[in-house]
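Hey,

The postdoc asked me to send both predictions to you directly instead of through the lab channel. I've kept everything plain text so nothing gets mangled by the mail client. Protein one:
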Amino acid sequence: MKAFYPTVDTTVRWPIPPQIYFEQVDEGDDIPAVDFNLTYQRMIMFVGATRNYPGLHHNERVAQKRGAAPGIFLQNNSCLMLWERVVSDWMGNYGRVRAATFRITEFHLAGDIIHVGGKITKKWQDKGLNLVEITMESKTPRRVGMAGTVTVALPSLKYPTTTPMWDREGNATVVCQ
């Protein structure tokens, strides 16, 4: 019996996002938005990735029986994963997420297309870090489903590969990659 190896499509390339530097952003700038199609497959993959197995997030009958929602819905940390994808694609390899705050006001249901985007609302320097606060929103087909902020540290054009690392107490160390 001969082993089967599927052909590899060499025309598809995963684009490396360009690096964004502190000097290149201004308050009021939008970051590129992304639309996420919450298929049943994607929802169940999120459950497996996070190991959050209550039936509310992957079994419609359980979600409806418990009166939680009309169907399966995205869990909190998976909602944050959507934000992380948008922010990390925008900021590039040397940017780092420092903090995130959010409030969920609407279910992110299977079958929804979720529009995730943000706007830079604050830019400052603190203890050698170049910090940017982004006001984020996840819009469901019904209304805004999640709102909050993400704070990121960006490298400077003067030191393009410096990356902050945080310890458990929140203290930053800047390292050169």
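Protein two:
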Amino acid sequence: MVVTQPQHPLVIQRDRLKITWEKLPDDFSLPDDPVDNHLQPLLAEALRESLELAGLFSESMLIATNFGICATVADKAVVKAPDWVYIPEVKPLSEGVIRRSYTPRLEGDIPLMVLEFISETEGTEYSINPHYPYGKWYFYERIIQVPLYGIFQPETKTLDLFRLVDGRYEPQVPDENSRFWIPEMNLFLGTWDGQRSNLSTTWLRWWDSSGNLLLWGREQIEQERQRAERLTAQLRALGVEPDGGSGE
């Protein structure tokens, strides 16, 4: 009788590759490439801000931009830094420790979603290179197995979203509003044309299950201002001054 030993949860054999989930050495040199343009960090910041203001971000989550996601493949460390990553739950760090990178399984959940923002100088978002150092598509799909992979092209205002099905990414079809339903987050993700940070362009935004846009901070302030003006007008129509005086 042959007894098969259970595989260690931090060691995986996939596609004839040995994948392990190990902490990067402290002296490992992480990529420090500058972003390709000023829009990329603004897109990432906008996605995070509305989640936080809607109360949909907790301390146990990790949302980051241009942040290294790591795996060790055939004893070689592989690091990719997506433009935006959402991880539902991570293990807390010791007090005073700063997270330099993230290794799934070892440090918490596999990322639920990674987003890449295509720029003129980038061309690796669709790369399926199966050899070290591996293409981004291959890394997210076959090594990390991220459930959702989004690729946004600001110039064409196009968002493509892919879901991992049986180990392969399948393109998702948006709804009639050109938005993608993300059941794991109970939110829609789509594009929106407008202004933020004195920049008029196409942004990625969230909508709740009822189709309500998750607002940014300045939008919440403007919404409250308009609500206060309407209330003031209603009170004056009744002959009441908001400061307590009389309209007579």
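Summary for protein two, as requested: The two ends are 98 Å apart (CA to CA).

Thanks,
C.
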